[in-house]
Amino acid sequence: MELSVRRETLRLIEVVRSSRGEIDSVGTCMVTLMHDGITAYGEGTPTGYDGVTADDVVAAINADAVAVLGRDLRDPEDVLDRIGRWDAPAGARMALDGAVHDWIGKAAGQPTWKLSGAARTLGPTVYTISMAGPEAAANAVRDAPAVGAFKVKVGGPDDIASLEAIRAVTPLPVRIDANEAWDLDTARELTPHLRRLGIQLIEQPFPVTATDDYHRYREVPDRLPVFLDEGCTDAASVQATRSYADGFVVKLCKAGGIRGAQRVMQAGRRAGLGTMISCMCESELAISQAAQLAPLADHIDLDGHLYLREPPFRGLGLEDGRIVLGDAPGLGVVPS
């Protein structure tokens, strides 16, 4: 068995703006796994807001990944369980978990999604619109890929004009993401306007620590459904937040890969919460990893690959607002 990992910088086609700031590139990590004549790939992304860097992910993989995998992959379920127990950054577990899932499909000569019983074509996915003025926001929607919904980054009352401009140019569902930027007064003020515009839901309106605001927002008449992103990372946090959230956002980079994210989603189902499968700005490799779990999700937010200037992997399609997975063995994507 041979394993290598490299850090890669993904350059974006445009600057992405949110309440957290601006980015024009992101760092990710690519794993190449060679075993039994098969070459498989996995991607692992640092989440950033927990202080983990791509260098941390690379260091963990270089230090321990070969030992975690063991001598061979004849019992991949056992290997995946070991990855799940590995005390490493979630991005490192995500990369190794993805490579093993790619290897499983290639070893069987089948797409991984077919082996798991998933569909090749996913439900409608979104395209995220950066924080911008009304004209720029409307133009971004007009120029967007042919997706099935939009997610708009917001920060406060000034965003209502931009949302009105967006609604004027699209009838598609619109969600918003505040990335912890609101307080309760802002939520109370904006909710009637957001309802008037048909906004579907809001991600992480308040800071993770502002649990009282989440509880009090539940008392606001005709409030928006609230989905947690930064405030929900694993199965334990699903249980902790069920009293003040309507759903949560699942990302492989938080949960540690396909296996870990599946457990989080199952915990959410048991708690009666809605689920959204989502991503960071990632390549088609990471999106293919996350897409294996799309059948378990109520909402699909897999658009990170659509922002890349020079995609390092190819193989996904986009038809009628829906992601179409590759039909080649494994995760269905190949290096560009």
TrEMBL record:
Residues that span the membrane, as ranges: none
Residue span, Mandelate racemase/muconate lactonizing enzyme C-terminal domain: 134-221
Pfam families to which the protein is assigned, alphabetical: MR_MLE_C, MR_MLE_N
Coiled coil regions in record: none
GO annotation (BP), single: amino acid catabolic process
Keyword line: Isomerase, Metal-binding
GO molecular function terms attached to this record: metal ion binding; racemase and epimerase activity
Gene3D superfamilies: Enolase-like C-terminal domain, Enolase-like, N-terminal domain
PROSITE patterns linked: MR_MLE_2 (PS00909)
Family named by the database record: Belongs to the mandelate racemase/muconate lactonizing enzyme family.
Name of the featured protein: L-alanine-DL-glutamate epimerase
